Amino acid sequence: MSIVNLTNKTILITGVAGFIGSYLAQRLLDEVKGVKVVGIDNMNDYYDVSLKDFRLEKLSKYPAFMFIKGNIADKALITSIFEQYRPQVVVNLAAQAGVRYSIINPDAYVESNLIGFFNILESCRNYPVEHLVYASSSSVYGSNKKVPYSTDDKVDNPVSLYAATKKSNELMAHAYSKLYDIPSTGLRFFTVYGPAGRPDMAYFGFTNKLREGKTIQIFNYGNCKRDFTYVDDIVEGVIRVMKKAPDHAKGEDGLPLPPYAVYNIGNNNPENLLEFVDILQQELIRAGVLPEDYDFEAHKELVPMQQGDVPVTYADTSALERDFGFKPSTGLRDGLRKFAEWYKEFYMQ
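and the corresponding structure tokens:
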């Protein structure tokens, strides 16, 4: 692997007002000497924009942070950003997220996840970068029966358009790595959670509903398992990956091999959804989001599986450990405690 020194570099982060993007930007600005972070986000209203504003406000305090409001599907804009700032490292986190939303609003996914990503690749070709890191997703594993999911597994059977677009990103990146020698690494994230997270994620939606006294629906009768991964672990993984790009190497035939890699980032420890929700409500009570005498049983309903969902996500992270010496380690209770405390402060002060 080729070492990429981030010191004094310009780093472009797309989706910078998003959950992972904002945490990543802040860590880079806090810890990397002389770094300049250019962030782009279209600030769409797929979920509560006040959360995106909250994340951006924290970043705007850094002199080395530059924010551009815009859409990565706008080719002229992306070209002008690369032309002006010449980023040496690019982290593409901008995407229309969510499996269920892709069933009712497919256009948004084609625009952001396909056209947008294509524009990023084109600019990386025309303005060469040391490393392109981009978000893929555990959803590419579709209805694969073999667990834990390994990056060696075939992923040709997506069960949602969202998953299909993420698999397409990996294929497009592979082609560009091969054709134009662009070092690229895709990261398949597994169910990321934490403070200031995405309100469309189950734990956040459950919290809102429980607070309003509504009933929460737990899919697959609570028998879903998810590899819940705390946001700090994800960001630590992303930064380690940014610093090591796939090598420019030659194959046995003497022809160049594409400098291309894909890794899972997950907790390698799937949790039952019912247990997850139980810990969540304990921590919400502890943080004062819910009253101590809250009747949790009266507010939950076990329902069948939803279209486009899978019963289990479980990451084989051995390659990440081997190549980067890293394995996510934040326990569920610790992570949910931090989320509950943040939620109390953000929504109930």
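(Above: one complete record from the training split.) The chain has a mean pLDDT of 92.
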